[in-house]
Amino acid sequence: MVVVPEAICDLSKLQSLDLSDNALQSICPEIRRLRSLRHLRLANNRLKCLPPELGDLQELETLDVSMNLLSALPERLHRCHALQCLTADRNSLHCLPRQLCQLHSLNELSMAANRLATLPLDLGRSPQLQFVFVDNNVHLKGLPSYLYSKVIGCSGCGLSAQVSELRLLSVARGELSVPLPPEVQAVGSETEAVVPLQELAMRALHHAQHSSSLCRDANSLPQILIPRTLLELLGCPVGHCHHCGQSMFTVVYPRIFPLRETALAGMHLRTRVSFVAYCCSIQCVRAFDLQI
Ligand SMILES: [Zn+2]
User: Fold this and answer.
1) Does the chain have fewer CB atoms within 10 Å around its N or its C terminus?
2) Checking phi first, is residue 22 left (phi over 0); if not, alpha (psi -120 to 50) or beta?
3) Which of 145, 179, 213 is the last residue in one of the domains?
4) In CATH, what number is assigned to the domain containing residue 94?
5) Which residues have a Cβ under 8 Å from the Cβ of 88 and sit 6 or more positions away?
6) pTM for the full model?
7) Distance from the alpha carbon of residue 201 to the mean position of ligand 1, in angstroms
8) How far is the CA of 215 from the centre of ligand 1 (A)?
9) Looking at the 3D structure of the chain, how many domains does it have?
């Protein structure tokens, strides 16, 4: 089977659909009509992309897109509020949308054997997320410190000398270089103890937007001109301070904890990764420590 028969999308009460082990090259946007769908399996096909309309499946609990040709996941997946298990092993994913950190029901995330060089800064911030498998992403050298207390699989990570062809900011500490997501525009250091004005302005706007019960969406922001890219960042911060929870937009203060120096070292032998705490200020980065 190369395409999904459209008639399937008329089955509005269908709860489980398994189209694994076919030759599917695309999924039609009409899949959004399967409003009752709870389990969708598309493993072992030839999918190069997924339709954003998957994000309209509000009942979806399981999504398996392993063994395809995916280079990205749709940002709109974060609207699948019921999603508990997301599996995308053995694809060609370069990064994960940071919006996925807003999936508050997600319990298990499996992204083994992809091309990930970075993970979203907030990954693991949700207490519901307990299982994260990113084994065999050879370019991945840094895990967000939120993952320290979770069940993680990272065998085969960080073994590549070359990080990525993408131009990414990096945090150098001796031999170790951990790339940062492209949304992070600057790395705070000890010598720049004051947060840049743009960052302060965005934190203030974000705080104003979320503390007022009258303005809940981006459309009700004060009538000032903000570049679209910054507006999108305002709606979904690049991350939250691993120490105090403050929203962060363009600047982070990272601190690296090499795995070999942590209590988990003995459990992860064939790997070379670090935990990275991303903080909002030099004060938080100094106060941060890894905790189980
Ligand atoms: Zn902080």
Assistant:
1) C
2) beta
3) 179
4) 3.80.10.10
5) 65, 66, 68, 70, 73, 110, 111, 114
6) 0.90
7) 16
8) 25
9) 2
Ligand 1 geometric centre to CA of 229 (Å): 23
Calculate the CA dihedral of residues 178, 184, 186, 188 and round it to 10 degrees.
-70
Domain-located, residue 112: yes
Structure tokens at 96: 């994960």
Q: How far is the centre of ligand 1, averaged over its atoms, from the C-alpha of 284 (Å)?
A: 5
User: Cα(172) to centroid of ligand 1, in Å?
Assistant: 21
CA of 150 to the centre of ligand 1 (A): 21
The 10s digit of each residue's pLDDT in 113-155 is: 999 999 999 999 999 999 999 999 999 999 999 999 999 999 9
Question: Is 1 domain-assigned?
Answer: no
Q: Which pLDDT score, from 0 to 100, does residue 266 have?
A: 82
Q: Which domain holds residue 246?
A: 186-287
| Same domain as 115, residue 95 | yes
84 and 160 inside one domain: yes
CA of 88 to the centre of ligand 1 (A): 32
CA of 120 to the centre of ligand 1 (A): 17
Contact 272, 246 (CB under 8 A): no
* 244 and 193 share one domain: yes
Q: Judge whether 235 lies within some domain.
A: yes
* pLDDT tens for each residue of 217-252: 555 555 567 777 778 888 899 999 999 999 999 999
DSSP 111: -
Mean pLDDT of 165-184: 65
**Is residue 23 located within the same domain as residue 123?**
yes
Single-letter residue type at 254: P
